[in-house]
Amino acid sequence: MDNSGFELHEETPPSPSVKMERKKQEHPGEKKSRWSLLNIFLVCLLACAITTVLGVLVLSLVYTANTGFKPKYDASSQKHRAASVGNSVTSAQVDPKFQFLHQLAKAKKHEFPGGTIQWSRFRKNANEYQNKEEMAFGRSINAQRSKMTFGTLRIKSKGLRAPHWHFNANEHGYLLKGTAWIGVVDAGGNTVTTYNVTAGQVIFFPRNTVHWLKNVGTEDCLFLLFFTTHEELQTLDLDDTFFLTPEDIAARSLKPQGGVAFIRSFQRQAEDQAVNLPPNLAELVQNPNYQQSEDPLVWRYFFDLKGSTEFRFPGGIIQFARYVKDGKGLSTNERIYSEFLHSKEDALTLGTLRIYSNGLRQPHFHFNANEMGYVISGCGQVGIIVSPSLTTDFTIGVGDVVFFPVGTQHYIKSTCDEELVFILAFSTANQLQTLDMDDYFHRTPDHILAQLFFKKQDEFKKIPHFNEDQAINLP
Ligand SMILES: *[C@@H]1O[C@H](CO)[C@@H](O)[C@H](O)[C@H]1NC(C)=O
């Protein structure tokens, strides 16, 4: 089996025989670590028993010390949870920042005749990670039950991402460049919705809808894709299902002229056609028609993010493709998207974040969503606080993927001359709930802050209030 054929198996669910093979060799590293964890646990248990035997006095002393230590004890149990984000043995050898950062530009390129796919994702088989850093990230988004996987899809001019569907995820995409003609077939097959997308627009494919993406422009298309699962994405491509269906069954179902002989005349290509581009395309296809369905249908699957309301701050601009209750402030077409999004389980809120040179998206956290972002341009510095014992700052550049688990405090600073631009996804289709650092400082009474920080109450008047929201600020 050649390389790209193997890639297919990575993306599609394994056949029963492959499954069994996998089971046999399933994550030997993990099993070992599970065993050693069990051993440690047993040793701890034994130690506890010995402590008990040693005397009630000692035990109660330890107990008192623990109780007096309550806040720190809480912190360390949080730390334990955070550490499990990156998981056991390996995370000890990897910079903790890789639980929140994946350098996707360096990730393996899955090459197909018509384009390329790259992934930031969880792998069930640890051997499929390229390196420890990638494993730390994959395990982190899985352990946090992030409901997110990220990928980039590059399609050459005239190339086609084959019609396919995902068992276990909605898909939200952002077209960074190019023009594509999209098709979506909904349950029952009564409708196919087709439309053109151009750069700066957002697409939405609910779980198990059959969809395709055809590059109808002259340059490459680059899609930035978010899938709403932290497990391995399960996908079937239309050509694969056709060739895996027995010929007589396919003939009975499609009832073609010529019957089974016609079905037999189909030739399976040696290379995986997930993204395809036949060399003799002009010979095969004449007068393709790229029509667009009627508006009310189209806008369920499609949102003009670039053309949407800009939320402006002193240091940058935010735009959203999201659900808004009662459609307040949305155009008629935007409302169609908003309502459709809200009708689906586990849909995402997407957004672009632009931070001017030297701007700061101040420290904040989200009550109700994990966040994943991809750096489209610029560079910056990011900091995240998970717990007193897990805090990390790191630099980011084009092609990096960041992950901020729900509740963790994070900031983003733009550090070069050009704007820092992100596409962001939040794991909620409800309204995003956020709290910024200046807001929680202003809302906490001065006397509470004075007591907490051992500082005179008056001193806190030095922290000014501004008329304009400082979510993204400038010095
Ligand atoms: C979609 O784009 C293609 C290629 O640019 C064009 O031929 C076609 O007319 C467009 N369709 C619509 C409905 O705008």
From TrEMBL:
InterPro entries: CLLAC, Cupin_1, Dynactin-associated, RmlC-like_jellyroll, RmlC_Cupin_sf. This is Cupin type-1 domain-containing protein. It comes from Podarcis muralis (Wall lizard). Residues 124-250, 328-461 form the Cupin type-1 domain. The keyword tRNA processing does not apply. Residues 19-29 have a biased composition (Basic and acidic residues). Gene3D superfamilies: Jelly Rolls. Residues 1-29 are annotated as: Disordered. GO terms for cellular component: Golgi apparatus; plasma membrane. The chain crosses the membrane at residues 37-63. It holds the Pfam family CLLAC. Keywords: Membrane, Transmembrane, Transmembrane helix.
